[in-house]
Amino acid sequence: QGGVYAWLSIAGFGVVLFTYLGIGLLLESNHPLE
Predict the structure, then answer these.
(1) Residue 21: helix, strand or coil by DSSP?
(2) Where are the domains of the chain?
(3) Cα–Cα dist 34/21, whole Å
(4) Distance between CA atoms of 11 and 17, rounded to whole angstroms?
């Protein structure tokens, strides 16, 4: 099960990173404050 937990940790990190980059690009494309 160690490999499964390692894969889940990597997958979770990838999802968080992808979401962070997606939100960053979305905020850069739309500047409601400027």
Answers:
(1) helix
(2) 1-27
(3) 21
(4) 10
The owner of tokens 């962070």 is: 20
Query: What is the pTM for the complete model shown?
Result: 0.57
Dig out the tokens for 14 from the structure: 């990838």
Return the amino acid letter for 15: V
21-27 long-range Cβ contacts below 8 angstroms, 24+ apart = none
Q: In this predicted model, which residue has the larger pLDDT, 5 or 29?
A: 5
Torsion of CA 22, 25, 23, 5, to 10 degrees: 30
